[in-house]
Amino acid sequence: MTQPADTHLLPTYTPADFVAVRGAGSTLWDQDGRDYIDLGGGIAVTALGHSHPELVEVVRRQSDRLWHLSNWLPNEFAPRLAGLLCARTFAEQVFFSNSGAEANEAALKMARRHHHDRGDAERVQIIAFEGAFHGRTLLTVTAGGKYTEGFGPLPGGIAHVPFNDAPALERQLRAAPTAAVIIEPVLGEGGVVPVDPGFIAEVRRLCDAHGALLIFDEVQSGMGRSGALFMYQQLGVEPDILTSAKALGSGFPIGATLTRAAIGDCMQPGTHGSTFGGNPLACAVALRTLELLDDEVLAGVEPRAQRITEFLTELGGNRRLFSQVRRTGLLIGAELGPDWAGRAMDLVRLGWRHGLLTLPAGADVLRFAPALNISDDELGQGLDRLSQVVGEFVQGG
Ligand SMILES: *Cc1c(COP(=O)(O)O)cnc(C)c1O
Predict the structure, then answer these.
(1) Known catalytic residues?
(2) Which atom of ligand 1 is nearest to the CA of 100?
(3) Confidence at residue 254, expressed as pLDDT on a 0 to 100 scale
(4) Could you tell me the distance, in angstroms and rounded to a whole number, from the CA of residue 188 to the centre of ligand 1?
(5) Does residue 3 register a pLDDT over 70?
(6) Nearest ligand 1 atom, CA 245
(7) Position in ligand 1 atom list of the atom nearest CA 102
(8) Which of 59, 135, 190, 339 lies at a C-alpha separation of 20 to 30 Å from 395?
(9) Ligand 1 center–CA 176 separation, angstroms
(10) How much is the mean pLDDT over the chain?
(11) Single pTM value for the model
(12) What is the pLDDT of residues 378-393, one digit of tens each?
């Protein structure tokens, strides 16, 4: 597929052949006025829908007042956003950046620095899980394990163990002094695979027993996606460091690394920084986003998720299209049956022709990450279109 509007972009993506120019709620419109129901949410980003009027108002007001300050100057919004994030989580301190990869990069650097400053400079191993995704910087992409070909030499000290495998984790913890274990509580890019509750409790116990910090990458699972503000709150297991991005700014770029003061205090002036991180415009949008993610929105996640899951389960029986439907709140993955293996992107593309936006999660999983506040009407329309897409897909064989 060719780039529709601009052939001077690096060929890193294979985008659709239409250009979306406007959005409202969970609907997008392209240049020709065709509408699309958005069940992908820009990859779990637009959790409150497109162009939420209150967020538009914040951007409008703040862009009139002040966009950027250097980090030499305090701004109105970063401390308020950090304060609210801490009030609603385990955390006591926050570092702001611009993306999920940067939030994880800061988390991993902080973990190593923490041990270094406590006189344990040998404690550098980072353990991550197979199938995980943590971003595209050299450190975070190495933690993820995929997408590293041709980019070596890769940063050292990173080991991988199978997801949901406690004995393997314990063996790796024994193999070298470990700075941190980094885990997505649900593998997002890796196919929407939720962590076993028993396993995550064991991860916490093993980290404590071996002196390793536990990092939850909640870039995708956080900001209400699971039905709790962050998924650790549902699992009842508290991390030492938590990262957020994606929906944090409703699509305005911002990332955050949250921790307790006993860990964050190692990041003294000069250790880390970001020119844009914590800028007033991004923080104002994220602050309002967090305020809008109230109990009512969170309570709306489960019924919507159930409706989609039931629909998918029924639909997936059609010529055994789906072998399994997995979910964590409104992060839903439908695994293609063996007859349809490797064809998730074909389904997504066919959706585009029917005015429907979904996502792949790997080659075999069709992923849904709609806005948490998607209206009944839009959801109904989206599912109708999905029926048509699936009908055509299974007929085409
Ligand atoms: C998307 C994602 C990232 C990377 O975020 P970017 O903003 O693209 O850097 C990291 N971790 C998880 C779990 C993600 O889903």
Answers:
(1) 133, 217, 246
(2) 5
(3) 98
(4) 9
(5) no
(6) 7
(7) 9
(8) 190
(9) 27
(10) 97
(11) 0.97
(12) 999 999 999 999 999 9
Model confidence over 4-35: pLDDT tens digits? Answer: 556 899 999 999 999 999 999 999 999 999 99
Pair 44, 220: CB distance under 8 Å: yes
Q: Which amino acid is at 358?
A: T
Identify the residue whose tokens are 């052949």: 17
Per-residue pLDDT reduced to its tens digit, 264-300: 999 999 999 999 999 999 999 999 999 999 999 999 9
- Ranges of H-type helices in 164-294: 166-175, 197-210, 231-235, 261-264, 280-292
Kindly report the protein residue whose alpha carbon is nearest to atom 10 of ligand 1.
Answer: 134
Distance 102 CA to ligand 1 centre (A): 9
Interatomic CA distance for residues 242 and 246, integer angstroms: 14
Which of 102, 134, 195, 242 has most ligand 1 atoms within 8 Å of its beta carbon, as the pocket-test mutant?
134
Please choose, from the candidates 336, 332, 392, the residue with its C-alpha nearest in 3D space to the C-alpha of residue 358.
Answer: 332
Encoded tokens for 367? 């992923």
Task: Report the pocket of ligand 1 as residue ranges, CB < 6 Å.
Answer: 99-101, 104, 133-135, 184, 188-189, 217, 219-220, 245-246
Give the integer Cα–Cα distance in Å for 249 and 58: 12
Residue whose CA is at the smallest distance from ligand 1 atom 5? 100
* Cβ–Cβ under 8 Å, residues 58 and 288: yes
Distance, in Å, from the CA atom of 98 to the CA atom of 275, rounded to the nearest integer, reads 10
What average pLDDT score do residues 227-245 get? Answer: 98
